[in-house]
Amino acid sequence: MTSLHENEIAVDEDLVRSLLRAQCPRWADLPLRAAGAGTDNTMYRLGDDLLVRLPRTADGGPSLRKEQRWLPLLAPRLPRRVPEPVHAGTPTDAYPVPWAVHRWIDGEDVGPDTVRDWDAFGADLAEFVRELHRVDLMGATREDGLSWYRGGTLAPCDEWVRPCFDACRGVEGLDLDVDTLERLWREALALPDPAGPHVWLHGDLRPANLLARDGALHAVIDFGALSVGLPDAEHAPVWDLPPEARRAYWDALALDTPTWLRARAWAIAVAVAGIPYYWHTFPEFARECRSRLAAILEATGGTEEPLADTLAP
């Protein structure tokens, strides 16, 4: 497993097997195989029906605990499958972080070979977001692990986003119009802040966290960024989808123009931060960020196009 962070915890199959023997002996002898890794967690498939999730760093444990607490309450209220935690692993000397076992969800990576109708996919994703945002907060607030920057406003992020544009300019071979991206970010900063109520947020609805089945959206996974806050950033990852899906999503949720432009700014912020950080250590994710920014630039039409002409996705 490639290390992505300075404080990363080494994980391999032997370690996972030792955790299972100590804490889940009934599953300890099931087949175990690597099932991928994201920026925050490493996954192993356990038998046919289970998935082991292990945070890459020590500060990833609270995200798993958050999933274990809230997903059982959210799942019955949502129109697609979401992860089902079945074991809350405890830290050990060998692995000093909470870990988890979830039910395995069959599905395929979202892409042109697995999605039959992008318009329908965009509408289905919008339905999921709408229903998630409608779920009662059940007493949850932007505290106790449910506060994340993507549920806030844009302005406080400018301090760390602004240097990322210069960092991207220094990435050899990036080949993006960073000046236009920075202009779009600054124009969004000038918009009024959102005024709606706080809602439940998935926090990271990029295609890697969506599963397709029979050509349609089947499940939404990885709720490690689950939070409570303003919904603008929730819409940002649709820039990772084809234009047909973006428009269907926008139309289904009837998003107003300021919300869409703030969402686009969130998409820019996350991607320009991800490119220089992961360019060498996680090139697949860096390419994903670059594709997102390229899609924004293509839709925007370049530096000569005024803001009034950039309202369509």
TrEMBL record:
Ligase among keywords: no
Q: Decide whether keyword Transferase is in the record.
A: yes
Ranges of residues in domain Aminoglycoside phosphotransferase: 33-266
What Pfam families does the database record attribute to this sequence? APH (PF01636)
Instruction: Mention one GO molecular function.
Output: transferase activity
- What are the UniProt keywords, alphabetically? Transferase
Main EC class the enzyme belongs to: transferase
The record's listing under PANTHER family reads: AMINOGLYCOSIDE PHOSPHOTRANSFERASE-RELATED-RELATED (PTHR21310), BIFUNCTIONAL AAC_APH (PTHR21310:SF42)
Q: What is this protein called?
A: Aminoglycoside phosphotransferase family protein
* UniProt organism field: Streptomyces lusitanus
| Lineage of source species | Bacteria, Bacillati, Actinomycetota, Actinomycetes, Kitasatosporales
